[in-house]
Design brief:
It contains 11 helices and 10 strands. The protein is of the alpha/beta class. Helix 2 packs across helix 3 (90-99). It is globular.
Amino acid sequence: MNALSRLKLLQNHSLSNLKHYSSAATNMAKLNIESKYPMNSGYEIPVLGFGLSTLTTTIQSPENVAEDVVSHAFKAGYRHVDSAAVYRNEAPCAAAMHASSIPRSDLFFTTKIPPRSMGYAQAKKWIEASFVHTGLDYIDLYLIHAPFGGREARLGAWRALVEAQQAGKIRSLGVSNYGVHHLDELEAYIKELEAEKGKGKGGIISVGQWELHPWLARPDIVGWCQERGVILEAYSPLVRAKRFDEPAIQSLVKKYSKTPAQILVRWSLQKGFVPLPKSVTHSRIDENANVYDFELTEEDMTTLQTDDYAPCGWDPTTSKD
């Protein structure tokens, strides 16, 4: 594919992403476990992901736990696995992929540059290490895990990712836990690279991953991404079960005969996000994927709207380094 054709493809996908967000509230009933969204890169991402973090990196046999839960997630219909180098779960996640009878082309694998290993040289080492750990021929999505290390380190890490993408090793790029000021900085850098090396040579942000739920809706970041067709992934969409007893949640639990977790995953889907629920319990992995047989009404969505800013974990978006 020549550069002009590629550019046209990216433009078409950007338009598709804008349409995706504008119609998110009206077309959710059409979603199913196999649904995908187009990304700015020209590739597609499954609308539901299986999240992994410290849940699967216990001192007691991290590899066994991670490989087991990913294998079960595949049986439950998930095709999208969100791993991270810092959580030491790349290898077991990939092992589950290799052991599965599901074609590689139907699976979607994400990993991330560790927060404390930023910069061009360090990022290049981690990218190569990811291929050693996983044995994969390509990585579907590679993110910068957090905006730490300062401007030079952030931009250097992005440049390393762009080079790996141009070499055919990575299909799509993105960031995680960036504040709007970090996103603006990266966008300006992409334009600088394009001015220096040519159109499309600066990379393109396809995905952004943040803690997102009714008590941390991040309208500024969400708006920034939606204007640019960037897919929003939601980690901790279940708020670590800390909000399950909220009256608004319990009311919807009774109304739909669903669990609090299912209500929150459905909320995330209807916001147009890609939720990444996580669990090491097989029955809950199944439960979190069983969210396509009901739809929250506009009134329901309004009842879940809050002005809270209440992270249940870390919040690197506020970092000023």
